[in-house]
Design brief:
D-Maltodextrin-Binding Protein, domain 2, SBP, ABC transporter substrate-binding protein, alpha+beta, about 550 residues, maltose binding, globular, transport
Length: about 550
């Protein structure tokens, strides 16, 4: 039975946003679970057959790629959006949150009177209690029966890939999204990079150890006049993906140790050595003195392209590729190359680094309980997992954005050699850079051989063993506890991290800092994550 307008208003009013910006979801009373969802015959097509014969319009809430905004304000207006409608037979009305406000607008959407048919968002970390709670709250549908009956393409993939199958369901076995799946060669895309032209000029090799990095950064400062030899983006923390930190067999986050136990790196005894290293480098002017102010990409661009910095940790395409394109126009010798994640001893394998999982929760879509046409929504979503749909999502429109050469799709000159727009801008018009579809290993945004080499170099770590999965699911009560404790812990940790590096707090205060974090409940959080990890491993 549908809620009255008064009941809906009460639900909206009752849903509140915590100080940490996490929502407290309120149980919706309007619809049943996935098995009892409304069954309206929205189409006359069999599952797996396209285009679907339907007159219905679906609604989708999802972020729009920032590159696409250069051309159109809505995904439906793009060549990709129009082609997807043509190939699936389904018209879709998209709503895009304002860039930088997705989390706040997601919270408001969940508290609203009416949800769209599908929502693309991270249902693990952005909804307290995760997907299990979102299902219990009657916000999204469990998809087991729908996938079984209406999504033959995704069903086949899950049957063939047991690891993926384990990732995209809850501890109780409920499927809840159509997943974004990264290809095997798309798991590593960020790492240390350094000015090779500077190294050549100074007759230095690409550094691999902490000591070699010290020698190189000192030379950049003293012989190249770099005001910030090493710099990095700062987004609530020093965004270096545990480069340098991992050399001490710890991490600046929760991680999994060699025995499979969850640990909080910032209170490890060896983390004191990390802080001492950064303090020394900062005091000697080797680390950007304004590192905590580098909160936007433009600041980082100016330092990397303005001869102020010679090394950083950044993205493969959005960092290395973009800087190479711009830097070479001004200085043909400008060259960035990947450096391995550093270790203490020569020849060691790095303990941790950046490595994603094949399942990316942030780019995945759930079907909401407010949809009147769940079967149609599932059929539409399943198209991306078909052979033809995968080509559209990865490469765009054949004959326009890509052509088949020797049996493999390749982007056309229109995409790769556009005089006005870069590769990523052109690709954003014809494909969906992120979203619920299987990534194709043949797709590459790399425009320089240095980028191809970087993937291999950054992959030489043990990150696969030590990075915490993004899709473990604490229970509802556990999530409340984590949200309450983690916000304060993370804030205090970062405040002290910066103070230690800048010398505003002596390193000798490390033990007091650890005791303070312990008193704030870090052991409770670690225990919750350990139990969630154990449940995940038993799925």
């Amino acid at each position: 039975m549908k809620q009255s307008s008064a009941g809906k208003s009460f639900r909206a009013a009752a849903c509140v946003v915590l100080a940490s910006s996490l929502i407290v979801a309120c149980t919706k009373q309007s619809s049943g679970d996935g098995q009892n969802a409304p069954k309206t015959p929205a189409s006359s097509s069999e599952a797996g057959q396209y285009p679907i014969q339907t007159k219905e319009t679906l609604t989708s809430w999802e972020q729009i790629n920032t590159n696409l905004i250069t051309f159109v304000p809505n995904l439906a207006d793009s060549p990709f959006g129009k082609q997807l409608e043509k190939e699936t037979g389904v018209k879709v009305k998209y709503t895009h949150p304002v860039d930088g406000q997705a989390k706040e607008q997601f919270n408001l959407l969940i508290a609203s009177n009416k949800l769209p048919d599908v929502i693309e968002y991270d249902w693990n970390s952005s909804y307290p209690g995760g997907a299990e709670k979102a299902i219990a709250d009657k916000v999204i549908l469990p998809l087991n029966d729908y996938i079984d009956k209406y999504a033959p393409n995704l069903k086949k993939r899950l049957q063939q890939d047991k690891e993926l199958d384990k990732m995209v369901k809850t501890d109780s076995g409920k499927y809840y999204v159509f997943p974004m799946i990264r290809p095997d060669n798309g798991l590593v895309f960020r790492g240390p990079m350094i000015r090779k032209d500077w190294l050549d000029e100074l007759k230095l090799q690409v550094p691999t150890t902490i000591d070699e990095w010290y020698t190189v950064l000192k030379a950049f400062k003293e012989q190249k006049g770099a005001s910030a030899p090493f710099t990095s983006l700062y987004s609530n923390e020093f965004n270096i993906q545990d480069a340098f930190i991992g050399a001490y067999r710890t991490a600046n986050r929760f991680y999994i140790d060699d025995q499979g136990k969850v640990k909080y790196g910032p209170i490890d005894p060896q983390f004191k050595e990390v802080l001492a290293l950064f303090r020394k480098w900062y005091a000697e002017g080797l680390i950007d003195k304004d590192f905590a102010l580098n909160t936007d990409s433009k600041t980082l661009d100016n330092k990397m392209l303005g001869e102020n910095s010679g090394a950083t940790v950044s993205l493969l395409s959005g960092g290395m590729g973009r800087w190479m394109e711009t830097g070479k126009k001004k200085n043909p010798k400008f060259q960035l190359v990947a450096a391995p994640y550093p270790t203490l001893k020569k020849g060691e394998r790095a303990f941790i680094g950046q490595r994603d999982f094949k399942y990316n929760p942030a780019g995945s879509k759930a079907v909401t309980v407010d949809t009147k046409h769940p079967e149609l929504a599932v059929q539409w979503l399943d198209y991306a997992f078909s052979e033809k749909g995968s080509l559209l999502f990865n490469f765009g429109i054949e004959g326009e954005s890509y052509a088949m050469k020797d049996g493999a799709p390749q982007f056309t000159d229109k995409i790769t050699k556009n005089e006005k727009y870069n590769l990523q801008q052109m690709v954003s018009q014809y494909t969906k850079p992120n979203g619920p579809f299987p990534g194709d290993s043949r797709k590459s945004f790399n425009t320089f051989p240095e980028q191809d080499a970087a993937i291999k170099i950054w992959s030489e770590t043990d990150a696969a063993k030590h990075v915490m999965p993004l899709f473990i699911t604490p229970t509802v009560e556990e999530s409340k506890e984590v949200a309450k404790l983690n916000t304060a812990i993370a804030s205090y940790k970062e405040e002290m991290f910066v103070k230690f590096i800048m010398g505003k707090e002596p390193i000798d205060k490390f033990d007091d800092y650890v005791k303070q974090i312990q008193s704030m409940g870090i052991d409770k959080v670690t225990k919750i994550y350990q139990e969630a990890l154990d449940r995940y491993n038993k799925r």
